[in-house]
């Protein structure tokens, strides 16, 4: 069920997909699963993996402000604060989180801020606050130059060169996702507040965790992901050979399996 959810000084679009087992009168027993999209796409990036996930879980996803169906922000906001507002709206006291890139960073931050609320983490090519060296040199300056020139095709090409190395010429699906996200890059920049540094606190996490990196991702992200997995107690590191920064597009079956693995055995 799609709906708008009130957050501080704004609203976000959310979708609550009831598990297939519950619709058929079966109790799956799985905890609700919340999906957090990356900064290079909106929540539609989860479409390739959603059918398998809803077989086992109630699945909730939302568009960060400025992305997809969510209005652009008009005030300062935090992705983690908005995530908490979404959980409260749906009455969810404990969930599993699957987060990609920006969404992975938000998942980690909530797990550190409120450990009782997060039962498991599935992190896909995640970012993390407080880690030096993830920024692409000159990337934002080039984004601003192309945006000032109104060159949307140039912006999409830049994003695909940077984040979509596993794609081929005419990678229309990835291009469509990136094109949709670019407006959020431009509208969110003055308003989005970075959450508290988390990298030096990863050792405090105490939940089942799977972290998947894309072997065709940027070297800086791969290095960050390796260091994250080494710091998170009990974390299983998985290397997706065919993935860049868009693993749900490149290897959806593997991604779905990893998310379900992270949630295995969790009950309400």
Report on the architecture of this protein:
About 2% of the residues have low confidence. It contains 10 helices and 8 strands. Helix content is 37%, strand content 17%. Helix 3 packs across helix 4. An 8-stranded mixed beta sheet has the order 1-2-4-3-5-6-7-8, with helices on both faces. The two termini are 21 Å apart. With 268 residues, the chain is an alpha/beta fold. The protein has one domain: Alpha/Beta hydrolase fold, catalytic domain (Rossmann fold, 3-Layer(aba) Sandwich).
Which keywords apply here?
alpha/beta, globular, eight-stranded mixed beta sheet, 8 strands, Rossmann fold, 268 residues, 37% helix
Give a short summary of the structure:
The protein is of the alpha/beta class and 268 residues long. Helix content is 37%, strand content 17%. It has helices at 20-23, 50-54, 79-89, 102-113, 139-148, 152-163, 172-188, 219-231, 247-250, 252-263; strands spanning 2-7, 10-17, 33-36, 59-62, 95-100, 118-124, 209-214, 236-240.
Q: Spatial order of the strands in the main sheet?
A: 1-2-4-3-5-6-7-8
Number of helical elements = 10
Average pLDDT works out at: 93
N-end to C-end Cα span: 21 Å
Strand content: 15-25%
Share of residues in helices: 25-40%
CATH architecture: 3-Layer(aba) Sandwich
Instruction: Report on the biggest sheet.
Output: 8 strands, mixed
